[in-house]
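Regression test case RT-17, inverse folding.

Input:
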């Protein structure tokens, strides 16, 4: 016997025009692929077809599951469809970070250091304080490493509570990733450790890939061993902010906000990012949210007709 779904929740799950938003998300991914694929060859990068195929296995699995369960009204099909799109975002959009690094624009670390100094930030002293407090250091490390599983939380929660906000999250997530990569390509930077600031979590492997791309010695891009190499703006900070924003109308908001406040602090206190990296990430999210509001009438032409039934709010 299937568990019943409250009528108000069923109404919210069946009225949003999620197909248009799914189509828009896939169009964005396709556009990024069309623009970037020719550029990989220009910078001397190749991606083995086997590596691409491996990244499509899970999206294909979850997408097929979403189709099989499309008639269910329990939120699972929408969550699976959104998860499929997010997983596809890595080979289509996320891989472009390596293209941005291979562009090899002048590093802006000196400017970032100067900006931090102008703000009165002495990061080496902050990291030394963190290292002297073992429990704080461990807690911040847990918060920093929580980002990847956090990306799934809005999918699960909003898949059951609010499809409109679920697809808004998917759309904004992709926009944040694209804008972050563009800014990283224009203003590439390393990490504070390259300038004598100790790091609690090693970024050595990511920086090895970053400088190999810039030097042209890394010519084959295997997505399965890829690293997050974006430093400015901090994608860790931007990702945490967009997850928190996505859950703003649910009871998950406050615990996630507290966790991500620690995550934002960890980027600096663990020596992983300049403060200005985090500030820039806030700006990225603000721009994306403003743009999202501007395109919302097109993405949701019938949003004014949505029922105003009860919903989880904070």
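Golden output:
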């Amino acid at each position: 016997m299937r568990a019943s779904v409250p009528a108000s929740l069923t109404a919210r799950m069946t009225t949003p025009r999620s197909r248009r938003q799914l189509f828009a998300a896939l169009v964005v991914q396709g556009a990024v692929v069309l623009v970037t694929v020719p550029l990989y060859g220009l910078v001397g990068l190749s991606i083995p077809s086997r590596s691409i195929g491996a990244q499509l296995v899970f999206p294909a699995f979850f997408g097929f599951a979403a189709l099989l369960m499309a008639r269910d009204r329990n939120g699972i099909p929408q969550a699976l469809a959104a998860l499929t799109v997010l997983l596809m975002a890595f080979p289509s959009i996320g891989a472009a970070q390596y293209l941005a690094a291979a562009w090899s624009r002048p590093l802006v670390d000196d400017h970032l250091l100067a900006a931090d100094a102008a703000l009165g930030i002495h990061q080496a002293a902050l990291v030394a304080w963190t290292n002297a407090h073992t429990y704080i250091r461990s807690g911040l490390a847990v918060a920093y490493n929580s980002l990847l599983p956090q990306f799934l939380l809005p999918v699960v929660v909003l898949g059951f509570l609010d499809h409109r906000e679920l697809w808004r999250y998917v759309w904004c997530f992709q926009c944040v990733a694209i804008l972050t990569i563009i800014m990283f390509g224009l203003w590439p930077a390393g990490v504070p450790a390259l300038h004598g600031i100790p790091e609690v979590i090693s970024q050595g492997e990511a920086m090895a890939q970053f400088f190999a791309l810039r030097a042209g010695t890394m010519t084959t891009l295997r997505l399965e061993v890829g690293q997050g190499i974006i430093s400015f703006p901090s994608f860790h900070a931007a990702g945490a902010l967009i997850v928190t924003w996505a859950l703003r109308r649910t009871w998950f908001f406050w615990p996630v906000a507290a966790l991500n406040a620690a995550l934002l602090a960890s980027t600096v206190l663990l020596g992983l990012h300049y403060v200005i990296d985090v500030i820039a990430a806030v700006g990225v999210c603000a721009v994306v949210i403003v743009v999202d509001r501007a395109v919302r009438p097109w993405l949701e032409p019938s949003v004014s007709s949505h029922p105003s039934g009860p919903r989880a709010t904070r």
